[in-house]
Design brief:
This protein is an alpha+beta fold. The protein has a domain at 2-144. Helices cover 44% and strands 18% of the residues. A hairpin with a 7-residue loop joins strand 4 and strand 5. It has twelve helices and nine strands. The chain has a six-stranded antiparallel β-sheet. Strands 6-3-9 form a three-stranded mixed β-sheet, with helices on one face.
Length: 268
């Protein structure tokens, strides 16, 4: 398996592109194998090239997931993933993010026929991952207006998201001088889930990063570093999101490929 992060600055030309994609990644499958996808609260756009894709190329919207996904990926498949910034998915997709939660939706069902065909035509010309990433990012950027980039709700969600990793919903709402009810409503509208669920997914993602980086780290230290109240809460989340104990899942991480990548979103 070969996985690489594509830095947006390298994927762009001299033409300015609004910052909408939080992270862009390429996954080249060199042999048949099982992949793990760690659940994340963001929406992704996914482009697949190769034998698993219809006509050798397909594009899907991948909604937020709340459980680890295990899937066999075939040799020769090449995947580009664009993680949309929090608060921007609704404007990019033309529908609330909650519409896509737990679903994989062909982009043909989301964008107009003309937009979709233009994107397919452009992607068909890509000869390397950075070309495909640039094409996908520009297509995403074209969906937004300047007002979408600076909406009040988007800015509020991004600020709250940083704080939620180390504080509870009540504390974050108080710090932002808004009510818990208002914070919950904004998250449901712009992220597609409650702030509590968002925080749980981000803590679990961070815990899997730490577990993968160190096979000898204690679960108590991982729980503390990931922002859990205690080890018992970490164990509960592993059962809920991974369907396994923390140690059993760490062993699984050590043997399988992951469609999960370290980037600035995982380190808010």
């Amino acid at each position: 398996m070969h996985i690489e992060a594509i830095h947006c600055g390298q994927a762009r030309s001299n033409t300015p592109v609004p910052s909408i994609v939080d992270a862009m990644f390429a996954d080249e499958c060199l042999m048949d194998g099982l992949r793990l996808a760690i659940p994340r609260p963001e929406v992704h756009l996914v482009v697949r090239f190769g034998p698993s894709a219809s006509r050798g190329l397909d594009i899907h919207v991948l909604g937020a997931r709340r459980r680890v996904t295990r899937k066999i990926i075939r040799k020769g498949q090449w995947t580009i993933l664009a993680r949309l910034q929090l608060g921007k998915a609704g404007a990019v997709l033309g529908a609330p993010p909650s519409t896509f939660n737990g679903h994989v939706v062909p982009v043909e069902q989301v964008w107009s026929a003309a937009e979709t065909q233009n994107l397919y035509d452009d992607l068909a010309t890509a000869t390397k991952a950075t070309d495909a990433a640039m094409i996908l990012e520009r297509a995403i950027a074209a969906r937004l207006s300047p007002d979408d980039l600076n909406s009040g709700h988007s800015l509020l969600v991004c600020e709250a998201a940083k704080k939620l990793l180390n504080a509870n919903v009540s504390e974050v709402a108080s710090d932002l001088r808004i009510s818990e009810r208002h914070l919950r409503r904004v998250f449901l509208e712009t992220v597609g889930m409650s702030p509590k669920t968002f925080a749980r997914l981000m803590r679990f993602s961070r815990a899997t990063d730490l577990a993968r980086e160190s096979s000898h780290a204690s679960w108590a230290s991982i729980a503390a570093a990931a922002g859990y109240y205690d080890q018992a809460h970490l164990i509960e989340d592993f059962h809920v999101f991974a369907g396994a104990t923390p140690e059993a899942f760490r062993r699984e991480l050590g043997h399988l490929g992951m469609l999960k990548y370290k980037d600035r979103a995982a380190q808010l």
